[in-house]
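thread: overnight batch results

M.L. [08:02]
morning all. the overnight job finished for the chain we discussed friday. pasting input first so we're all looking at the same thing
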Amino acid sequence: MSETIAIRNIANPDGRALISDHGAHLIEWTPAGNAPVVWMPRAVYLGRDAAIRGGVPVIFPWFGPGYAHGQAAGLKPKHGVTRLAAWHFDETGSTDRLARFTLSDADVDESVLRVWADHYDIDTAAGLPKFEATFEAQVGSTLTMRLTVRNTGDAAWRFEAALHAYLHVGDVAQARLLGLHGAHYLDAVHGFEPREQADEAVTYPGPIDRVYESSGALRLEDPVLGRAIEITREGSPQTVTWNPGEKDGNAIGDMSEGEWRNFVCVESAVCREHEVTLAPGESYTLGETLAVAVL
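M.L. [08:03]
and the structure it wrote out:
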């Protein structure tokens, strides 16, 4: 570990969450009487010099390599800057059921703001993009996460965002994601080929990386753990679901062999063609609520 990072313990009789100041990254949510719902690698690296694998990365102002002029933009760092930034924990605004973190453009390296402006055609006559971001997690028998971003500058700007949740399953090969039947999606495993979800459930027999046009409720069924994770969203016109499969999963440096079997990413997103434009003073909220039901 390069440098110790602060981890906040939000606990009450209904559930517990652990959230790092580094990235405002939720690394655990366990409702009372249940197995952990959010997945983390056993040997996860927790240092200020790298993004955290697993949990719920907070992604802004671009998703993946970014998207500009109808194609991937090849931007770095991947998934923008918020998951690498030192957020501020709001001691007075947080309780044993609510964690609140804040971040602004003043906390971000100017070079990253310039990359954002250059590739998203932001007018910099009045300066680089200015923003305030708030991440809140309401913790109990359910978990509600909200990322709110506000334009505090004098020029409009465009952005992408996501709550990149890694959900714990007993065996990915037996997991089923319901709620996407008939939805159109881009298949990133096959060159972002456009397709339609023909089957009732999304299953994970091999590598899966898809961006669905869907804002509805979802249900991740897990017969091994005997439960379903129910997912509702706010401000999310898209659903991203990902699992690397055996070959790529075993090659990921901070995951042990075989750990790829124990998670499915189900992400609330606003990305690519659905990027959002905020005028000065405007704000946008992206939210996700997780609940557990007996299967």
